[in-house]
Structure formats: C-alpha cells, structure tokens
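Section 3.1: Structural characterization of target chains.
Under the original work plan, the team committed to producing a structural model for every single-chain target entering the pipeline before any wet-lab resources were allocated. The record below documents one such target. The sequence was received from the expression subgroup and is listed exactly as submitted; it comprises 106 residues.
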Amino acid sequence: MTKFVDVLDFDVLPKGRGVSTWVAGHNVALFRVDGEVHAIEDSCPHAGSALGCGSLEGGVVRCPSHGLPFDVRTGCGLDNSMKVATYPVRVDCGRVWVGVPDLEEI
C-alpha cells in the first residue's frame, strides 16, 4: 500500500532544477516540469550521484557526475540501459505529497 507524505510547499519547488529530499526512508529528487511535479529516486544507478543536483532540460535530468540522462516522468535512462524508481506525486492545497511504500506493509 502506498502512503503519501507531505514533503514541501509547491511554490518553493524551483523551475528548471531539482530538489533532493528524504521521504520516509527514501532518497527522492523532485522536479517541476510544465507545472507538474515528478519524483524519482535520487541516486544515479551508475555512481550514486544525487540526481536532484543534476541539470534539468525539459523533462530530462543529467547526472551531475557523468551526464547520464534520465526522464523524470518515467525514470528511464534515455539509452534504456538504466532506470531509477519513480514515486507517485499529488499536489493538494499547495503542498507536494509523495507516495512511498508503507514500511509496515513490507
């Protein structure tokens, strides 16, 4: 079962770059793209760099260490060799909520 956690105010989420955060035991990177918020695992599968610190163009973030590109909407690497987890997001009353697996259910 997914548990939604209140993470931050929508208005403080910057356009054009990510934010790294900790959500109920998960490292998560949040991105604001075309008015929507996307959440992915905040660790590049290649070298573990924080994707929230990477450069963002459109819906693609590049790992700050080696430039590997990932689609923030799907978590897929653009060359399809790697993928990061994605998390459901909802915005309610101006707050960003991220869905994570309920640890009690695991």
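DSSP finds no helices and ten strands in the chain.
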